[in-house]
């Protein structure tokens, strides 16, 4: 029998690449999606991954037709995945007083939220017909409470968390499991320019180990590391005046024009 197959978006760096490496070590076949196809190919070759155990699909997750086409191509070339991980995401600060940042917010939502739904769409019917499969949305603890200057990212991840919860209910009884994995601060290109403290910062490889275990266990929701889950819950419980004072003066996320 063929090895199980995992479909991962945002596979060119960071969490996506670490997840791909973890699944490869477990003997899975890989369907890797990225805009930077050459980067993924170079990484796979450097990692010694045999060419018959992976395929690379070029897609822009922010463009619905592009990522849906990649999913359909995967079905034709590799079959129905056992796990689909909607990981691709962008994190950019916004200032609602600036017109150009509204366009930035639209792009963040298109990538992080609508892009995740479009990632899942091609596979739901086939997984339900087979009676098995796992759909994994990579959320964030930033989706649990809004952070100043981080409105686009927080909103996109809050929407993704709620979307996955809705989808989980819709697919109950089909054999298709929906998991929401919420990373805390992970040492990736997305976080390295942050100008504020990042408690419990994790290496991508450590996150990937824990995420792999959570998905395999069929977890419906998991915050990694667990300490950030405790922090997020405590912040959620704070009355708004206390929360607002706590975050007063906190450095804002870099805007698009400020990012290096």
Which features characterize this protein?
alpha/beta, Rossmann fold, single chain
Helix-strand blueprint:
Elements: E1 5-9, H1 14-25, E2 29-34, H2 37-46, E3 54-58, H3 64-77, E4 83-86, H4 99-130, E5 133-138, H5 151-170, E6 176-183, H6 204-216, E7 221-224, H7 226-237, H8 240-247
Parallel strand pairs: 1-2, 1-4, 2-3, 4-5, 5-6, 6-7
The name of the CATH superfamily reads NAD(P)-binding Rossmann-like Domain
**Spans with pLDDT under 50 lasting ≥5 residues?**
none
**Structural class assignment:** alpha/beta
Architecture per CATH nomenclature, i.e. the level-2 architecture:
3-Layer(aba) Sandwich
- Helix and strand string, N-terminal first? EHEHEHEHEHEHEHH
Describe what this molecule looks like in 3D.
This protein has 260 residues and is α/β, with parallel strands linked by helices. It has one domain: NAD(P)-binding Rossmann-like Domain (Rossmann fold, 3-Layer(aba) Sandwich), CATH 3.40.50.720. It is 47% helix and 15% strand. The chain is built from eight helices and seven strands, in the order E-H-E-H-E-H-E-H-E-H-E-H-E-H-H. Helix 1 packs across helix 6 and helix 3 packs parallel to helix 4. The longest helix has 32 residues. The chain is globular. The protein starts with a strand and ends in a 13-residue tail after the last helix. The relative contact order is 0.14. The model has no long low-confidence stretch (mean pLDDT 91).
């Amino acid at each position: 029998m063929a090895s199980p197959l995992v479909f991962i978006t945002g596979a060119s760096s960071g969490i996506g690449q670490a997840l791909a490496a973890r699944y490869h070590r477990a003997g899975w076949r890989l369907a890797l999606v990225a805009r930077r196809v050459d980067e993924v190919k170079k990484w796979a070759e450097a990692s010694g991954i045999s060419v018959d155990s992976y395929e690379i699909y070029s897609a822009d997750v922010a463009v619905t037709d592009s990522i849906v086409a990649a999913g359909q191509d995967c079905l034709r070339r590799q079959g129905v995945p056992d796990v689909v991980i909607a990981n691709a995401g962008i994190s950019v600060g916004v200032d609602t007083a600036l017109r150009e940042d509204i366009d930035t917010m639209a792009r963040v939502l298109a990538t992080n939220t609508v892009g995740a739904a479009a990632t899942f769409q091609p596979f739901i019917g086939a997984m339900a017909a087979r009676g098995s499969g796992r759909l994994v949305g990579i959320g964030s603890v930033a989706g649990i409470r809004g952070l100043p200057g981080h409105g686009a990212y927080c909103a996109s991840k809050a929407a993704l968390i709620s979307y996955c919860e809705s989808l989980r209910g819709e697919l109950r009884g089909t054999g298709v499991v929906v998991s929401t994995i919420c990373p805390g601060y992970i040492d990736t290109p997305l976080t390295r320019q942050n100008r504020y403290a990042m408690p419990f910062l994790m290496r991508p490889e450590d996150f990937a180990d824990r995420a792999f275990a959570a998905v395999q266990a069929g977890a419906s929701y998991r915050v990694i590391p667990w300490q950030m889950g405790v922090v997020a819950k405590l912040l959620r419980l704070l009355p708004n005046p206390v929360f607002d004072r706590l975050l007063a003066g906190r450095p804002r996320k870099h805007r698009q024009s400020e990012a290096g």
